[in-house]
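Hi all, a correction to my earlier message: I attached the wrong file for hydroxyacylglutathione hydrolase. Here's the right sequence:
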Amino acid sequence: MVLNFLTLFKYSWKTSSYFVSSRRLYSSQFSKYDSISDRYKIHILPALSDNYMYLLTDKFLKFGIAVDPVEPEKIMKTLAMEELELRAVITTHHHYDHAGGNKLISEMKKNLTIYGGDERIEALTNKISHNEILKIGDIVIRCLHTPCHTSGHVCYFIDCETIPEPICFTGDTLFIGGCGRFFEGSANDMLQSLDILSALPLSTKIYCGHEYSLNNLKYALSIEPDNEEALNKFKEIQEKLKKSEPSVPSKLAISHATLLPGVKMLSPVTFG
Ligand SMILES: [Zn+2]
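and the right structure:
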């Protein structure tokens, strides 16, 4: 695979310049859930200015798993409404806007297990390693170490018999239409991390850590204005945001024909 590190660097910083404007597009008023089956739901809960927290719930065994619960009150309120117990927290990385609610949520729910791949994660109880399998109820989660945005970043992949479609919580490693900034790693680290994610089934539903989708695609179209797939995805997401709906989830797909230069060379980017 040919990799243009310089272009990737430029891409990473270019996307960051859109962060401020993306906040204007984001409504913190909505929350919704995806019905995975009769048994499971994923609640998509906006937090802070443009973060997403997630709550995976199991109606049969009556529990929930929170992903990056930076605003614990919203998580606990959703659990109370569904009459479910919080069983565990999975944390993608140590940044405040992802792990900053861990201490409070561990005070709200005693003896809570908090997973993560980095000692710097607040209130961490169980440090996990690459390819470690967590079994929580009937949910089987594979931990994928994806360093670069932070050195201890972990994505959580779920593909088990009880869940009909594969799911991945990608934090700040992979967004819809782009990847995270390189705070603690090189372009080569990001390439290796994206290679890990690109080996997942293309039908995997991606739940990422921020609502950056529209601006990522805006940038893609500034480079490739005739890219039809990017244009269609841009329009689809624009409509969703107008209706105050989140752009997540999106299916993982790899398409060299549709991606922007710099990312297309290394590129699992989410479209679909
Ligand atoms: Zn981050």
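Sorry for the mix-up. The mean pLDDT is 84.
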